[in-house]
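Session log. Operator J.P. requested a structure for one protein chain; no other inputs attached. Running the standard single-chain path with token output.
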Amino acid sequence: MGGLPTAGGAGPTSLLLLLLSIAVVTVTFDRARYWLQWWRQRRLRQNRWEQVVAGGADAIETQLLEWNSQMAFGEPLLQAAGVLGPLLGLIGTVMGLMRVLASLGPQLVLPAGANLNNYGQVLLSTALGLIVSLIATSSLFANQGIRHWQVDGLRRRLRLRAQPTKA
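Structure written below.
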């Protein structure tokens, strides 16, 4: 069983993809924990919102900006991972293809008894990059959607409160 080098071997892009995937999963779990805590503390938050509204327009805007900033935590990393994941995967695939072609020699002939499974491993880094991108993009869109839903709800409550009641 002659040997081709393992095309999907651990290289610099594999390490970068691993670090990127750890960061994406960490931010994703942090956002899930944040929103779970956000909904569990809705009574406290409603009381806080009533205090802020009583404080006037500047207090309202300051509180909305603070909450929006907390809600948006990690979004830049998720945006970057959505782009960098596939690019790192593609770089890993190109590097793997270069190793495979180098192992074939100048005539590009399979060595006797070569294992063809190694050729398929070349695409592994592209698949991993796409998976990282999918998780990052899904988490980003979910966080942005929930954030806009919550901030819009707070502003809607504020507008309803400002409308005069009909007697």
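Operator note: Residues 12-158 form one domain.
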